[in-house]
Amino acid sequence: MKVFGFGDTRFSISQVELADIAEVMPPVDELRGALTNLVAEQRLMSAFMLLTDIFAQSSILLAANREGEAIAEQAFGSPVTDGRLVLPGVLSRKKQVVPPLAAALT
């Protein structure tokens, strides 16, 4: 997990690399609950979890709250469906996720 700050806005992004997301994916509600707790503990605007499937070369982005989902939808131009934002071709948190989120915040 890494915390990023842009002006007065702070959010975290955690990343887990997996060989097969579908095989080991815990329930989205459980992951969101953990992210929500992190938001409260760290006083963040939102917290994100990036689940990266290294074989499929794609990721799923989860957000702790609706505010985080709205920023992610704006950043990536796709809707969050069932609490998930599918990001084909996205593997790098630093190069492919942080810049669009930062841009959506400005």
Characterise the protein shown here.
Helices cover about 40% and strands about 30% of the residues. The chain has helices spanning about 20-25, 30-40, 65-75, 95-105; strands at about 1-5, 10-20, 45-55, 60-65, 85-90. A hairpin with a 2-residue loop joins strand 1 and strand 2. Helix 3 packs across helix 4. The protein is globular, with a radius of gyration of 13 Å. The protein starts with a strand and ends with a helix.
Comma- or semicolon-separated keywords:
106 residues; 41% helix; 31% strand
Distance between the termini: 23 Å
Strand order of the largest sheet: 1-2-3-4-5
User: What is the name of the CATH topology?
Assistant: Diaminopimelate Epimerase, Chain A, domain 1
Q: What portion of residues belong to β-strands? A: 25-35%
Helix content: 40-55%
Mean model confidence by pLDDT: 93
Number of strands: 5
Which spans have pLDDT < 50 for at least 5 consecutive residues?
none
Instruction: Decide which structural class fits the backbone.
Output: alpha+beta
Number of helices: 4
Large-scale geometry: globular
Quick summary of this structure?
By secondary structure, the chain is an alpha+beta fold. The protein is built from four helices and five strands, in the order ββααββαβα.
Task: Draw up the topology in text.
Blueprint: E1 2-6, E2 9-18, H1 21-24, H2 28-42, E3 46-53, E4 58-63, H3 66-76, E5 85-88, H4 93-105
Parallel strand pairs: 2-3
Antiparallel strand pairs: 1-2, 3-4, 4-5
Helix pairs in contact: 3-4
